Structure formats: structure tokens, C-alpha cells
């Protein structure tokens, strides 16, 4: 089973323009992330996929592998699908380009799902963590997920799910952590399918997979990624080096 990591890397960013090209300990954020993915030793190959000449040149000039994204895309899955369409690969892991402090443990968890899935019942695997703070639960930027008894996702939402009409019934609230592992065919199917109303309403691409019958296996973790979304995040990251 051939497993690769793909790091989608857009130059433009609403909250922090050009954040991936910012300096972090003498290297750019995107190069740090790329090298961290390689250093996990979990992947047969690692690629950055980008629509930016600057990012492409940054990776290639430092001996890395990059793929130019030719088409305009509405989601990360679309961008990754275009990149891997002609690659010989079985499983694709989506690594966030703005998380240079990659923890190998949660990535290994989603990979293990596919190693154990001998009957190929799983199309995607992803992570979730329990949240108990009311503000976190109610925050629409924290995507919640509910799963069935076998750990397969039933629905993702920015709203509070399940709604707590009855208290003290043992409900756990689970936040979706945006690390994905895909079977290549699931990615290619996504690429060819139209956006439907649920995805359009919630602005959550994972709902397209569910709407078209794909099975997403969720794995619980305590992992919280350290992303660089603002200049303040970058300063915190610099202090961690």
C-alpha cells in the first residue's frame, strides 16, 4: 500500500496574506512543514501542491517535490484530487501547510485505519477530540461531528450537534480535527461530483462525501494542531523553536 502526504499551499490568505512564506527559524513556514512531514517517516513520498510560483520555487529550490495546481478550486479536496490524479498511490494524507510542528502520532492513527481495513469499507479517515467547554461547543468555527456506534461519521456541523434538549444523558461533543486520509478513488470521485445543498450551506467539504454515500471513519485523539493563522500565531511559533 503506497501512502503519500500532500500539502495544499495557497499563497493568498484572508487573515494573514503570504503566511506560508514567512520566516520561521531561518526557513519559510511551508518549507518547515514540508520537512516536518518527511521527518515523520510515515510516507512513501511528500508533495506540496500550490497555485503559487513563489511557493513552488521555494520547495523545488530546496530539493523538495511540488506540483503546480493548474485549475481554480473551491476546496482542498479538489486541489489534492487534481494533483494525485496521475500518481500511482493508494492512500493520500492531507497535511495542513500552516502547521509546521507536525505530530506523527495522529497521522499514524489515520493511516492505521486503512492498514486494518482489509475489506475496504472505509473511504476516508479523520480525527476528532472531545470538547467540554460551552464556548468551544457553541463556536461555529469549531466543527462538530456525530458518529455511529462503529465510529463512522453521521454528520458534521458548525451548529451544536446533538442539540441538548435533554440534559445529563451522557452526550459527548466531538470537534472535528481537519486531518484527512483518503483512498485515492474517493478523492477522484469527489472531484467529479457537484456541490450539494448541505456543503453549500455549512461550507464544509466533508459533507459532499457523506451526501454521496462515502464512509468516513473517525478516530478519537487528544491532538490539537498548532496552526499559523495570524501574525500573533507566527510570533508564538517563533518562541517555540
Distance between the amino and carboxyl termini: 35 Å
Structural class by helix and strand composition: alpha/beta
Supply Rg: 18 Å
* Rounded mean pLDDT score: 93
Number of strands: 11
Poorly predicted ranges (pLDDT <50, ≥5 residues)?
A: none
Tally of structural domains: 2
CATH topology (level 3) name of the largest domain: Spore Coat Polysaccharide Biosynthesis Protein SpsA, Chain A
How many helices does DSSP assign? 9
Polypeptide structure, described:
The chain has helices spanning 29-39, 53-61, 76-84, 104-116, 134-138, 184-192, 197-202, 206-211, 231-240, and strands spanning 3-9, 23-24, 27-28, 45-50, 66-68, 91-94, 124-131, 144-147, 153-157, 173-183, 216-220. A hairpin with a 5-residue loop joins strand 8 (144-147) and strand 9 (153-157). It is built from nine helices and eleven strands. The longest helix is centred in the middle third of the chain and has 13 residues, at 104-116. The mean pLDDT is 93. The chain is α/β, with parallel strands linked by helices. It has two domains: 1-99, Spore Coat Polysaccharide Biosynthesis Protein SpsA, Chain A; 103-224, Spore Coat Polysaccharide Biosynthesis Protein SpsA, Chain A.
